Amino acid sequence: MAEYDFDVLVIGSGPGGYVAAIRAAQLGLRTGCVESRETLGGTCLNVGCIPSKALLNASEKFYEAASGALAKHGVKLGSVELDLPAMMADKAKAVTGLTGGIEFLFKKNKVEWVKGLGTFVDAHTVQVGERKVTAKNIVIATGSSVTPLPGVEIDQKVVVDSTGAIALEKVPEHMVVIGGGVIGLELGSVWQRLGAKVTVVEFLDQLLPGMDGDVRKEAAKIFKKQGMEIKLSTKVTGVAVNSGKAIVTVEPAAGGAAETIEADAVLVSIGRRPNTDGLGLDAIGLATNQRGQIETDHSFRTKVDGVWAIGDVIPGPMLAHKAEDEGIAVAENIAGLTGIVNHDVIPSVVYTHPEIAGVGLTEEQAREKGEVKVGKFPMAGNSRAKAIDDTTGWVKVIADAKTDRVLGAWIITAPAGTMIAQVAQAMEFGATSEDIAYTCHAHPTHSEAIKEAAMGVLGKPIHV
Ligand code: FAD
Ligand code: NAI
């Protein structure tokens, strides 16, 4: 009889955990995955990436139709009505299709779903309900949840987090978004397109912390132009709810006179924090760092032998694709192969309209490291963007001034999220801006703007 129930037991079935489990099983390891939700797929599939993208897509279609924006393309519509329950049902279908798909993949790969909440008993044993499950290797992939704002109670009716904001039953007249990060801008866009007035309150002096400085400035301009009210350098000091209305008190971040804003929905989106409560880390002597994260080495080993960790629960950007890549790598490392994730080349995308995407260093970070050359190409010079009359944005390529190696790229345009993969791949191959500039790009495509920005690094773009 085997010493352990499993070779690998993964705790959490988000993009980190389910991918780790499937890869481990593919590598011939007996694998189980503990998940306490009713469905597999974690935050991303159930209440994150997938439902938010379904709503972003549907709300954009509604906005295009209802605002008359299609008329310029010769598409004249009669009266357009919002059927919010149908839109929500469409979103739910996208979610169940994908979460069911993971269940199918588990069965296909013989990964056992151990249903329930997992708590460590020791480094090789996890208590799940009545059952003690043992494994030679345990991967912590418990993800993250919403960071609460002290003094602001989330009731998921008037004051919501992202989970409440993807399930509102009616379009609020006025939504106040606390936090001008990715969730605030994506879900703020959804409700604005459906008819809400949206006010974003951001503590810092710019939106989207962590992104390139030019991108952050441009983002504020773009969202203001779309009608969002954006209050930068402003903090929320309290939210009072009375008869379905919220009174949000704000004041300048540096201190000063307070003012109140009335709203019928308040979205709290000030970040997410790692899930380790109730996991029993004490039982295995594993401490978290100051940010509550579990530290690992490059192979995703924690300080405890046989215990590994990946995804949102460890340091790094809280992104599904980062978690997935770590899931593959950890399984390969457990199987004795070499699993590597290049954390310097993790793209990030904001799925608004236009999309905002970046990979590698910001211009500020690159300049701190040494001399750089920057090429920037406006979408107004891109023939495809012009042909479809959607020319907002630009592409910026940052390269090392001496070696010409590409250090980062930032893109604002409708398909930026898809385009950024090209630069990520180029960076993985150690490409120079010359390599990109002299690669033939199909015409007319948005991607030609990447080529032209790279030509800009060399000093010779054609279409500006
Ligand atoms: P999670 O997906 O959080 O999964 C962890 C799972 O572990 C959960 O299902 C949880 O129930 C389970 N769990 C936790 N503790 C236990 C326990 N003790 N026992 C059993 N089970 C447990 N990222 C992107 O890259 N692109 C996007 O477009 C995007 N959109 C997002 C939109 C929203 C609204 C939100 C909230 C997030 C979004 N993200 C996006 C972030 C993305 O969802 C996370 O980075 C990703 O889900 C992290 O994966 P993970 O596997 O580490 O953890
Ligand atoms: P975030 O970190 O992106 O943004 C939070 C914002 O809130 C920051 O701008 C911060 O300065 C601000 N803030 C913090 N405290 C505040 C306060 N008291 N008052 C006002 N503003 C305050 O976090 P967000 O948007 O909650 O998203 C959480 C995570 O989910 C992100 O790390 C992101 O990576 C991930 N995510 C990714 C998506 C994508 O890849 N498209 C989509 C949605 C979420």
TrEMBL record:
GO MF annotation list: dihydrolipoyl dehydrogenase (NADH) activity
Catalytic activity entry: N(6)-[(R)-dihydrolipoyl]-L-lysyl-[protein] + NAD(+) = N(6)-[(R)-lipoyl]-L-lysyl-[protein] + NADH + H(+)
Keyword terms: Disulfide bond, FAD, Flavoprotein, NAD, Oxidoreductase, Redox-active center
InterPro entries the UniProt entry points to: Class-I_Pyr_Nuc-Dis_Oxidored (IPR050151), FAD/NAD-bd_sf (IPR036188), FAD/NAD-binding_dom (IPR023753), FAD/NAD-linked_Rdtase_dimer_sf (IPR016156), Lipoamide_DH (IPR006258), Pyr_nuc-diS_OxRdtase (IPR001100), Pyr_nucl-diS_OxRdtase_dimer (IPR004099), Pyr_OxRdtase_I_AS (IPR012999)
Comment on bound cofactor: Binds 1 FAD per subunit.
Pyridine nucleotide-disulphide oxidoreductase dimerisation domain location: 346-454
PROSITE patterns tied to this protein: PYRIDINE_REDOX_1
A Pfam family annotated for this UniProt entry: Pyr_redox_dim
Organism domain of life: Bacteria
First and last residue of the signal peptide: none
Domain FAD/NAD(P)-binding span(s) in chain numbering: 6-327
The UniProt record lists the keyword Flavoprotein: yes
E.C. code: 1.8.1.4
Cofactor(s) needed by this chain: FAD
TM spans (from-to): none
Family: Belongs to the class-I pyridine nucleotide-disulfide oxidoreductase family.
Note from the entry: The active site is a redox-active disulfide bond.
Matching PANTHER family: DIHYDROLIPOYL DEHYDROGENASE, MITOCHONDRIAL, DISULFIDE OXIDOREDUCTASE
UniProt protein name: Dihydrolipoyl dehydrogenase
Naturally occurring in which organism (per UniProt): Sphingomonas agrestis
